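Moderator note: this is an archived Q&A kept for reference. The question asked for a predicted structure of one protein chain; the sequence and the answer are reproduced below.
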Amino acid sequence: MNIRTFYLVEEADIWSNIVKDKWQGLEFTWARFLEELSAYFYPITIQRHKQEFMELRMSDSMMVM
């Protein structure tokens, strides 16, 4: 097994076992591994939602109940 996946646990370990065949025979760099991992566990739609949330601001007329 690849050293990259040695420390993965739980869902990340399951994911790596599913996609490991894809990595065979490829020049699979650390940067590529991180891209794949990020794409699976932190998809672009979630990134956009997070950005929207981080940009929320209260106006003077808003109340928190």
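Archived answer notes: Residues 58 and 64 are 9 Å apart (CA to CA).
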